[in-house]
Amino acid sequence: MAAPARKVLTGARVVLPSGTVDDGEVVIDGAHIGGSAPSAGQEGEAERWDLSGHWIVPGFVDLHNHGGGGASFTSGTVDDVLTGIATHRAHGTTTLVASTVTGEMDFLTARAGLLSELTEQGDLAGIHFEGPFISPCRKGAHSEALLRDPHPADVAALLDASRGAARMVTLATELPGGLDSVRLLADRGVIAAVGHTDATYEQTVEAIDAGATVATHLFNAMPPLGHRAPGPIAALLEDERVTVELINDGTHLHPAALELAFHRAGADRVAFITDAMDAAGFGDGRYLLGPLEVDVVDGVARLVEGGSIAGSTLTLDRAFRRAALVDKLPVDQIVRALSANPARLLGLDHRIGSLEPGKDADLVVLDEGFEVKGVLRHGDWVVAPQVAAAA
């Protein structure tokens, strides 16, 4: 396949690690971000795009995503998974980790094989196992009958089945085997995430000291912050080794909770995620999340039985827009939460997460209202801006 044409994007506000540049220029050489001068043999071949009145930001990186476009990453075919990936790419997510939900171990190990193939092909950035090693007290939209304690042998079986594609495992670390499993994950270079947990403050501190580095959708599926029993929220927010996931859809979090997380953890320790399920980018209706039925009404997903929130229908462009227009966060902080911080967690920040020469040409073009107008991945337009391009 021929390399993508050289592109020069001009006129936009470009968000760089060093700050925002007005009337900036981004040069794309093939599949990578180039310098200001053309590469050898590419003089005169550039497509020029005038993006005045727009923003250019790095492609979004989603650590926690169960599906979209009507397709599930837990139960769908390869084509279904690719449909979900394409749905989120059209909304700016150029790097995506596929999350599973609780299931039988044999099913999850088989699923790991399928998702690892897509990781090896470059369609996914890896696999996140959310369950079955979680607390029945905080199970959320997971089948209680399929939950199990996080014995290291079972955790290792999922890692082995993933053939190096496992990136994160969510654990209730207070359960039997929890701390040993955290140590196992840390030793094997996989993120241990504290989530769907009923842990105390002290137990959470133990888990962090054992190697846990992520809070799975902070505030959700864990004990609330108390003044005598601060629980996991206080421990996860206060420790500089921990990055906290936040679902910024207006349903999972009150704006004051999001503000608290940014104020206490700081912009370098927040990762916006979708926790999306099949309905993201697809519409209301009835869906399956693992073995459980979910009704999506007005974009909010809840279990048919019990009414618990069951993931989200969020896409990361909506999380960006809400953070800018409702939460009034500075754009550079939003970019860190959507791109730089999750890229660093995945160990991919040498390739993605910021607009710098030599990195993958993954970027998003937004208008002044932060609506997606263009998405570039590996130098190819997924969504081409509706402006004239002159060769």
Automatic annotation (TrEMBL):
Residues 55-382 form the Amidohydrolase-related domain. Belongs to the metallo-dependent hydrolases superfamily. NagA family. Substrate binds at A141, N220, A221, R228, H252, I309, A310, G311. Binds 1 divalent metal cation per subunit. InterPro entries: Amidohydro-rel (IPR006680), GlcNAc_6-P_deAcase (IPR003764), Metal-dep_hydrolase_composite (IPR011059), Metal_Hydrolase (IPR032466). One of its GO terms (biological process) is N-acetylglucosamine catabolic process. Zn(2+) binds at E130, H196, H217. Its cofactor is a divalent metal cation. SUPFAM superfamilies: Composite domain of metallo-dependent hydrolases, Metallo-dependent hydrolases. Keywords: Carbohydrate metabolism, Hydrolase, Metal-binding. It catalyses: N-acetyl-D-glucosamine 6-phosphate + H2O = D-glucosamine 6-phosphate + acetate. Pathway: Amino-sugar metabolism; N-acetylneuraminate degradation; D-fructose 6-phosphate from N-acetylneuraminate: step 4/5. One of its GO terms (molecular function) is N-acetylglucosamine-6-phosphate deacetylase activity. PANTHER family: N-ACETYLGLUCOSAMINE-6-PHOSPHATE DEACETYLASE. This is N-acetylglucosamine-6-phosphate deacetylase. It comes from Streptomyces albidoflavus. The lineage of its organism: Bacteria, Bacillati, Actinomycetota, Actinomycetes, Kitasatosporales. Its EC number is 3.5.1.25. The active site is at D275 (proton donor/acceptor). The keyword Metal-binding applies. Coiled coil: none annotated.
